[in-house]
Write a structure and sequence with these properties.
- The complex is a heterodimer of chains A (about 350) and B (about 350).
- By secondary structure, chain A is mainly alpha-helical.
- Chain A is about 75% helix and about 0% strand.
- In chain A, helix 1 packs antiparallel against helix 14, helix 2 packs across helix 3 and helix 5 packs antiparallel against helix 6.
- Chain B has about 350 residues and is an alpha/beta fold.
- Chain B folds into 2 domains: about 230 residues, Rossmann fold (3-Layer(aba) Sandwich), CATH 3.40.50; about 110 residues, no CATH class.
- The chains are: A mainly alpha (about 350), B alpha/beta (about 350).
């Protein structure tokens, strides 16, 4: 049994290392490095302001960029890779962001708060609403309510999340103008525990949360099916005959046991939330973790890009690992998950 | 199936009284228990036999108004507790029913193998039952241990187990223990030995006999296994096509059955004293609940019957004794359907 846990954790580390290696190579092979991209930007700026580039300025710029990006052009990719790993393992140092000129990890953590802020509300609300509705549908199987909601849920699942997000943006942000369409906080407010600031962040997170809510809605139908199957089980009838209350049967019997088949999926949904944040934050112009990742990709900010990747992969792997290792606790028929693996 | 007077009126101590009880599905189109008048006597073991789909389980479920949805029970089921006022089960609210269920009357269902919540330990099943019936946990568990010991279960080990960790026989006994833990008066068993091997069936039956003595139970035992039931039942009721066709003391029914169906049923059961080649099935098929024959329901398969049987419904008559059957020609039935075993001579 202990052996299984050790194996499972080692497995996760292997996956992390492989992902890290492959993406490191892929990122370095992208056309244009951070150096060229930055040079292009500066040249564009100068062209716009009408300055001309003489040899002296060019050399000055080159030197500045080199100091700035902190990347040694003479290093081979393999050398860079081992350097990177060495710094992580020995100094827990993921490097400094090129564009932000800040250490990668604190920068990501700062942004991560915002993603978790809107994501938790959207996702947690979406999933719990979906589960509750699924259970209510199961209890009223075949009723009008069930039919209408099934129709609605299927439609919702057919529409990709980003389309729904754009529709929300158009309707509530632009047409009705009820909610702001970008930024994290209301302009002119002071961050802290004060009412205007808090109202501001809630308003700004509302649309993106709603989009997350819609995306988290899909599990409802699966759960409905599980509940219906569970309701037909013999032990439910026996529980009624034992004189147990309907509430107890609904929660401890039907509700809980119907969660088992979708348990892993739910935990992975937390990881999916991060993946979804990239496109959602881009649509809603919400500068948080997903936005950071996307911009670091555009500017070839290698350290930040790699850091985000490690973070995303880590969260996904942790989700899977937690699901696998805890499954045996919620379903005693599976002993510590030894006979079951989710990938 | 009308009887002149109910048993309660004749001073017999009755636990259950059923009057015109029917169970129907599909808005009354499919009748699976048809207008049954019946009484269960206090302290007896009543065996109810019949082939699959004859309404046995429905009879058992109707006693607790526990027919599975969307089935509906009509008629009147009255329960007479030992030291309490009579309760009309069919008129009780859900809350009232919840109290009676398991506290006074317990029901061991057909599917004992899947009667436990797979994600809960056996102990938690006991505890939640105590909570639902306001029984102090300590007291309840003490009693649970005692009942388990009576059933030859190791309480400590079984309590800790999850359902999937128990064998079929252990699960069955654990369910019986769970059903006895609140000291009920009536135990209804619906095929309690289904899916157990022969030895385990015997073991469960003899356990039930011991338990019955010790806990002063009234038992209603529904099964299609005539051999088993004849060991334990005081009275035997035979069901055919959703109603009772014969009822009497077990030995009387076994050796001197009146109804041609009962006689044919007895002949279709393997036994030790008769010749195996005499064993015979009953030709034809049991009627479909949507298409019930007129007159006597058994007439299409009956070797005895004539025109009368096709048109007239036989009454449930007794010859003054405890033994009654619903047949127009009891004499002819006895002579024309000989039993293939020699139990009567013993």
């Amino acid at each position: 049994m202990v052996n299984y846990y050790v194996k499972r954790v080692a497995h996760a580390f292997m996956v992390l290392l492989t992902t890290l290696t492959v993406s490191f190579a892929l990122f370095r092979m992208l056309p244009f490095g951070p150096y060229e991209i930055m040079k292009l930007q500066i040249q564009n700026q100068m062209a716009q302001s009408g300055e001309t580039m003489d040899v002296q300025t060019r050399e000055r710029i080159n030197a500045r960029i080199e100091a700035f990006t902190n990347i040694d052009p003479d290093q081979t990719m393999v050398e860079a890779y081992f350097d990177y790993l060495f710094n992580i393992i020995v100094y827990q140092d993921f490097g400094k962001s090129i564009t932000h000129n800040e250490a990668v990890w604190p920068l990501m953590l700062e942004r991560m708060q915002w993603t978790l802020f809107y994501g938790t509300y959207g996702f947690a609300l979406g999933v719990s609403t979906a589960l509750i509705l699924g259970a209510v549908m199961a209890y009223n199987e075949g009723s009008r309510f069930d039919q209408v909601l099934t129709y609605f849920t299927v439609t919702n699942e057919t529409i990709p999340g980003y389309i729904a997000a754009i529709i929300l943006l158009i309707v509530f942000g632009l047409q009705l103008g009820w909610l702001p369409t970008g930024a994290r906080e209301a302009p002119g407010t002071v961050p802290g525990l004060n009412i205007p600031y808090m109202i501001g962040i809630v308003q700004h997170a509302a649309l993106i949360s709603m989009a997350g809510f819609v995306a988290g809605f899909g599990g409802g139908l699966d759960y409905r099916g599980n509940c219906i199957r569970e309701l037909g089980k013999d032990y439910i009838r026996v529980a009624h005959l034992r004189g147990l209350s309907d509430t107890r049967i609904a929660i401890r019997y039907v509700g809980r046991n119907s969660l088992l088949p979708i348990y892993t999926g739910l935990l992975l949904g937390i990881a999916g939330l991060l993946g979804g944040s990239v496109i959602l934050e881009w649509i809603f112009n919400y500068p948080a973790m997903g936005d950071l990742l996307l911009k670091s990709l555009f500017s070839r900010d290698y350290p930040l890009l790699m850091g985000s990747l490690v973070l995303f992969t880590g969260v996904t792997l942790t989700g899977l690992l937690v699901a696998d290792l805890t499954y045996g606790i919620i379903d005693p028929r599976v002993q510590g998950g030894a006979e079951r693996e989710s990938f | 199936m009308a009887r002149a007077r109910t048993e309660r009126e004749t001073d017999i101590d009755v636990v259950f009284e059923l009057e015109n009880v029917s169970v129907a599905f599909d808005d009354g189109d499919t009748v699976v228990l048809d207008d049954v008048d019946f009484s269960v006597r206090r302290g007896e073991t009543l065996g109810v036999v019949g082939e699959s789909g004859s309404g046995k389980s429905m009879f058992a479920s109707s006693l607790l108004d526990a027919v599975v949805d969307p089935g509906r029970t009509t008629g009147k089921v009255t329960y007479y507790p030992k030291d309490d006022d009579p309760m009309v089960i069919t008129e009780m609210s859900d809350d009232e029913l919840r109290d009676v269920r398991w506290e006074n009357i317990t029901f061991v269902v057909q599917a004992a193998q899947s009667a436990f919540n797979p994600t809960m330990s056996i102990k938690n099943h006991f505890i939640e039952t105590f909570n639902a019936h306001d029984v102090p946990k300590r007291e309840g568990l003490e009693r649970a241990v005692e009942v388990m010991q009576d059933l030859y279960l190791n309480p400590k080990q079984v309590m800790q187990s999850y359902p999937h960790e128990l064998s079929g026989g252990m699960k069955q006994r654990a369910l019986i223990a769970l059903s006895l833990v609140l000291d009920p008066e009536v135990l209804i068993l619906d095929e309690p030995t289904a899916s157990l091997d022969l030895l385990m069936q015997r073991a469960i039956i003899s356990l039930l006999e011991e338990i019955k003595e010790k806990y002063e139970l009234t038992m209603v035992f529904v099964t299609h296994n005539l051999n088993l039931i004849s060991v334990i039942a005081d009275r035997l009721g035979v069901m055919y096509a959703f109603e009772f066709v014969e009822l009497g003391p077990t030995r009387e029914v076994l050796t001197n059955a009146t109804h041609p169906y009962t006689r044919a049923l007895l002949n279709s059961v393997p036994n030790l004293s008769g010749d195996i080649t005499d064993m015979a099935g009953i030709p034809g098929q049991a009627p479909n609940p949507k298409d019930i024959p007129s007159g006597c329901r058994y007439h299409p398969r009956c070797p005895v019957g004539d025109r009368t049987c096709e048109t007239t419904i036989p009454t449930f008559d007794s010859d003054g004794s405890d033994h009654a059957a619903a047949c127009h020609y009891p004499e002819r039935s006895r002579s024309q359907v000989p039993l293939n075993f020699g139990l009567g001579d013993q």
